[in-house]
Amino acid sequence: MIDKQTIRAAFDQAASSYDAAAVLQREVVDRMLEKLSIMKLAPQHVLDVGCGTGYAGPLLLQRFPDARLIELDLAPSMLLQARLRHPTGSRHWIARLKGKKLPWQICGDAEALPLASASVDCIWSNLALQWCETPDQAFAECFRVLRPGGLFLFSTLGPNTLNELRTAFAGVDGQAHVNRFIDMHDLGDALGRAGFAAPVMEMENLVMTYDTVREVLADLKGIGAHSVRDGRRTGLMGKSAWREMEAGYEKFRNKGLLPATYEVLYGHAWKSDSDSRKSLPDGRQIIEFKVMPKQ
Hints:
11 helices; eight-stranded mixed beta sheet; alpha/beta; single chain; about 300 residues; Rossmann fold; 8 strands
């Protein structure tokens, strides 16, 4: 099981270092914004689930200048960092005098959203849902708080994520050093079970490159991405185990660099005014899956 207290502590500790290491997270935000730009939507309230340090916040407000942004995160220190991206002091009051709807911030869990049912028009979540035990509870909560006609747009990580690191650790000590991630098809099925209409899932592999294994692990630590499941190692690795892991990772070196692959999954679906979900005559729902071309 996933330990939420461990997650909160890890991200609280990483809040000050997060932005320096979160290259992938920012890239995925930019790609999600491209998807959002072609969708017809004029929301009054936009909820950012797992907002982190708030990189997406100002960009969402540019896209929807008349909307109220609600930033939600499990870690209080992340919300404090996110607050710095919005007007403060005299700029705060000037923004209010101009009629700007300044963001609200909530410390909460994606699997138990502290919001009223049918209270938001758009839910955005970037690389946060992988920290949930299963997608079903989080998807059910998102469906609950969305108004009819509302959009749910998210990204998360698939099972091929950090396969190089997982392979390098395999057989070293039998411990779980890399989190397990959910398959795209299982996420699509979960969206359907939650009641969402016309779910679409897409997948692409993004590869980060490093000079050393230590740099890979330093980036993961910098964004608070520790293994958070029961059975994880709690002590330090021995020198021989570390050398064995490094040797295993070195087998992936290509053109002088070590890759770290992230299988990024994108999903979007709507909360329909009526049950307009695509289905077959026997009642099975149609879900669209896409593998994005390599760039």
